[in-house]
Amino acid sequence: MQQRVQKTEREINRDLLRPNLTLQLRFFVVVGVCATIVAMAGGALAYAIIKGVGVYGVNRPVMWGFIIVNFVFWVGISHAGVMLSAILRLAQAEWRRPATRAAEVLTMFALGTAALHPVLHTGRQWRTLYWVFPYDFGRGIWPDIRSPFVWDPSAIFTYLSGTIMFVFILLVPDIAVLRDRTTGIMHKVYTVAALGWRGNSKQWQLQLLAGILLSALILPVFVSVHSIVSWDFAVAIAVEGWHATIFAPYFVIGAVHSGVASVITFLAILRWVFRWEDYIRPTHFDALARLMVIVATGWFYFLVIDFGMGFYTGEPGEIAVRYAQMGEWPGNMLFIIFITTGYFLPIPLWLLKNVRQSPMLMFWSSLFVNIGMWLERYILIIPSLERKQSLTFTWGHYAPSPIEVMLVIGSFALVTLGLVTFCKFFPIIPMYDVKEGKVLEQVIRIGKINVPAVFREE
Amino acid sequence: MTNGHGSHHVIEITEKPPLEVNNELFGWSSTLGSKYRLAIGITGILFLLGIVGFIMKVQQNGFSDYVPWAYLTAAFGFVMLFAMSAPMLAIVPRLARGHWGRPISRIAELWALIGILLLIVMIPLLLALPEADGRNTFWFVDKYREGWPPGAPHVWLALLMVGLVVNGIALLWTAAIPDFAAIRDKSISSGKSAKLYGKLALGWRGTKRQWRSLRASHGVLGALYFATMVWSQTMINYDFSQSLIPGMRDSIFPAWYVISGLQSGVGLVLVTAYIARKFGNLQDYIHVNQFWSASKILLALSLLWAYFWWSGFIVYWYGKTETEKNIIDLFWFGAYKPMFILNMLLNFFIPLIFLMWNRVRKSDWGPAFVGFIVILGSLVNCIRIFTAAFSLPDRAIGHQLHTVPESIMKPDLPDVLMVSGIISGAILLYLIAIRYIPIISAWEIREGMLYQTVRYLHKLPLKVIGKPD
Amino acid sequence: MTNKSLLGVFQEVDEAVAAADSLKEKGIDDFEVLSSTPYPEGVFGEKPSHHKLYVFPFIGALLGFSVAILITAGTQMAYPLVTGGKPLLALPSMFIICYEGTMLGAILFTIIGVVFESRLPRLGKLEPYDTKITEGYIGIGVTVPEDDVDKISNLFKEANATDVHVEAT
Description:
heterotrimer; A: mainly alpha; B: mainly alpha; two-stranded antiparallel sheet; globular
């Protein structure tokens, strides 16, 4: 029998607002740790700016290293929000309710962090940002719109602004609840943020319509963002293994794969930390895992086609890249870890109902997926650059520097910091969504059993 | 059907006694009148003419050269795309536990029978297809190990197709077993046909264990069918199109081809459902909800079609190598430009402009019209890509494309007859099948009635949908 | 004659529905329902609301597209610099940025439309309102002439309202 929330509205408010209305020591501990790591990463960045990008591990021919790998990784994670929120909202899937805002907020912070990476990569950022903004107008040139490096910021800016506005507008009713439950300065802040929300029928109609309209609008943006990131690689003819037409959907579906896995990780943590067993239930993990099986299998199809096409023409340069990726150390070890953790370990596990309905097993398997997906980006970028062209005397080797490693670790801390801070000030589970689910709950009696049902507006 | 009048909408659900459902659906084929017979007649004649066209072609050209078989390949690809993708609209709602798929699942699955025709048509195409040596191919021939796997591509393509067709028919059969059993028991027809249904029902009695096995088989066969369908279309696209173009290396081309198949498959089911509803008087079973739900999928597939095409184009446009520029000319902006523009209109712009409006999606004619447009687009698409691939002067050997034809490959009379023949043959086979296999799955309708009702939420009547585990 | 706004606050949905029915019997069918849960429209028998939200994304898309065209075409024509062998007005590249601009415009204007059509922001005192609404209570709000305030107040109380607020409009 499916579990359902058997609580009153008051109890739902109390449970879901507990992190916002109470001070908890662990919040300060986590913030402290994350802030420290972010500060250390900031220090590493300052060192890189002062000393120059020579302190990074990048060198001819591998001019893109850990930072760009991490950039693609975080853009990928950011695709979780729209996938779950928009698509499931449009499909009227009931099980989306506790997961949508967590996914959207993860998108926000992941994408914001990702956007920093190309800027970190360039070294003296104030001298290079005119690739996006025409402030160095003394040269009389505008950003080159023919370059995918200009398409990138336009797509990321659109997606980030769209997501922030999406999160905010759908947060307004819950901010109104906080407005009514707080006093003092927080009450004033929430009052302004709630925009005067009262909850009349028209406002609710518009909220629900906004959810659907914005979902429909942001979905094409979500597809375009990682496609454009993929074209940073695919449009170049200079690097063997990159000039493939399948990169766009391959990157997008890979992003969904890693993004949804990270939402599973996040939900499992939320459930454990805030004791939200009544709201984030095994049935949600079950549904997410089923979705992941389909997404992962689609991703695997694209992976096979992409790698298979490497052998399609049989060109020596391309074969050398594939050999570096799969045949020689350390590529072979990384490839095995990637393919095992990214597909062959989690997918068979997720075919088992017991695994799907276990939050703990889902947490660990989703972590494995993201380890695999980080390695996938590494394998895609680094060996291709190491064997950039078929002239073997141009081949090189890359090893990340401690500065790059610190920046990567700092990115994880930054995203965690953002998520924790958001959870402190705003409800991470949409309360009105959960309450709406309760209103629409029904039961159909067939013989001796009660089948869970739902009112459906058409 | 119960209509509840809310403040602004009519709720359509099927609420009938189960026996009435059985009687109506099992006796439906006997109500098929003159229009049905006319359709059988026309498609039968065109199919026979298609066979005549084939014989003419064999006498004219034989199988030594693959180029004359371009149009038959295009027609084969087209029919395979729509007919073998259509069952997905039965598989997907079942896997997602969507009740909306129930009235159209059998309509979709029946198209899998067309695989039998495709297997026959594939024989001359395989006879004409050149060996893989000397050109880019997905099979490991010539480059790494000689002739590996043995018989590639011919044997393996044939095996893939056989697997796909067998899987599709198995899916149709297993899904229809409870209905076959009901017909057997009802003895609408006596004598032979009752015995036939008895054999097809495989001793079905409706025990709990049998129902569990049936559902498990749907899941397994459905997942297998999807994988096989995707892979077969990928390989058909490689071996009959991309591999015949020297230097073409487009990893998204087969995926885009699969998407166009799914798009035309959904379109086909929408058109068939519309005809069944309007001309077959099945409004009590096929509601606007089915069109509304399937049209959302069709809109998504149309967007994906354009996206996948664009992903391929932008990489080629940016790369600007000689081969890439020639491929852009070959498929999109050279002699085939008018066909490509027509494709864009039929497969993307028209579906987008129509289906973005909820009012159009929430009708029966709207999605069906778009479905028809998409099928037309798929035909134009297949003709474009296969005839273009078959028309290259240096006969597919080598790894660079240096020249492209100045004009499109025009069909001759046998080509026209064969194309119309194979399409008519597919429709004819379907029409014959619905005479003997109920076009709507009665057991799924009866099951659906258990899980759907209309209730009031205070002042508002709404549909209630059960979500069993 | 001045008008007054009344808000009846009800703990149960059925009570609120009964109060709405009573209002309709009295010939008042223009009432407001306040809740902390999005009920399907029409649950309380209220009139359907009208809005022009759909116009906003189209306006936004057009504006976004225009700005993107200006940025892509205008900048390249202002300072022509051929790069990578691509034409100055490289349509595929322009298409990508125009696409993003169009979507950003549509999203931004949708948000503006939602806020505008919801008659937000209202940063002054919320009238009439009760913080119990966000605890799950249902509010039925109506504006009536001052003479009818007592009648409507009693109507709400008969329907088991926990509170009745009266504010000047």
